[in-house]
Amino acid sequence: MELSSNIRRIGVLTSGGDAPGMNAAIRAVVRTAIYNQIEVVGIMRGFSGLICKQFIGMQSHSVSKIISQGGTILKSSRCPEFKEEEVRAKAMENLKEACIDALVVIGGDGSFRGANLLWKKFGYPVVGIPGTIDNDIYGTDTTIGFDTAINTAVSAIDKLRDTADSHNIIFFVEVMGRDAGFIALNTAIATGAEATLIPEIHTDIEKLCSYMEGDRRKNKTSGIIIVSEGEDTGGAFKVSKKVKERLPDYEIRVTTLGHIQRGGSPSCNDRVLASLLGHGAVNALIEGRFGVMIGQLNNQIVYTSFDEACSLRNEINKKLYEISRILSL
């Protein structure tokens, strides 16, 4: 591949919430760049490190043995001050001073908004890699970290099922996902949950209670109800409280899985996806594709503008929701 004369050194950072597989993406960026005779600078702590000039040189050995590690070796942070024009101007000064010709940003939609501002306001070459367990980014079938997160949730819920069966308990299990129900829906199907509450579908408490009391539950000694944290009633604790008020004889417990879903060694799928997207990000810069997110649709690498990736949403599969309801009978 012909090397763009304008790209001699690139920076890479991780921003926002960490996701399993981010390290695999960093590794792919570093080694693909080195293969193409491009220097790599790691930027610590996301956009905050860009503002404070927390730069480290990266070589091939810098990313040895990190493909199996969760989290991010470059650390991450949220940087709301990056919305301010003078702060972005300072970041641009730092990039120029360090002779960094282009930037790879690994993160979610908030990270891409920051990246898009560099591209739109300064014409600075930036590409993005979707790293978030929420799987809500438009322009890719799956985001880095999603597969590991749902497998972590499935493992935890399988264990809860044992206790639920032993004590005739109904567990309301809250999973992450912000305002998207991908984690909840997939884990619900995989664990045989009795009900799934997600932000995309209005929660009808009366209907839920009727289902729990109905004939369908006569032969069931326990229950697992998966609740997405962005569900419109306010989450598992509020839902369980309302159900308990209507069904006082039921023994109910609430478990919030929380940040364990963001940690741990990434799955094979996340390692492969991260490697493909990291490789694709460097190739995009070499080819002069800027202001885009690298994604994978139907097993093909695709490029989606930051404008689209930030303004559109990955939609839940309503048919999958219907399947989860049918299989819970």
Please supply descriptive tags for the structure shown above.
329 residues, alpha/beta, Rossmann fold, 2 domains, seven-stranded mixed sheet, four-stranded parallel sheet, 11 helices
Task: Show the helix and strand layout.
Blueprint: E1 9-14, H1 22-35, E2 39-43, H2 46-52, E3 55-58, H3 85-97, E4 102-107, H4 109-122, E5 126-130, H5 146-167, E6 170-175, H6 182-191, E7 195-197, H7 205-213, E8 223-228, H8 236-246, E9 252-256, H9 268-286, E10 292-297, E11 300-305, H10 306-311, H11 318-327
Parallel strand pairs: 1-2, 1-4, 4-5, 5-10, 6-8, 6-9, 7-8
Antiparallel strand pairs: 2-3, 10-11
What's the mean pLDDT score? Answer: 94
Oligomer: single chain
Q: Major beta sheet, specifics?
A: 7 strands, mixed
What is the level 1 CATH name of the largest domain?
A: Alpha Beta
Pick out the low-confidence regions. Answer: none
Would you report the number of β strands? 11
Give the termini distance in whole angstroms: 55 Å
Gyration radius (Cα, Å) is 22 Å
The domain count comes to: 2
State the share of residues found in helices, binned by percent: 40-55%
Corresponding CATH architecture of the largest domain: 3-Layer(aba) Sandwich
- The CATH topology name of the largest domain reads Rossmann fold
Strand content: 15-25%
The total count of helices amounts to 11
Biggest sheet: strands side by side, in what order? 3-2-1-4-5-10-11
The helix/strand class is alpha/beta
List SSEs in N-to-C order.
Answer: EHEHEHEHEHEHEHEHEHEEHH
Described by the principal axes of the CA atoms, the overall outline is elongated
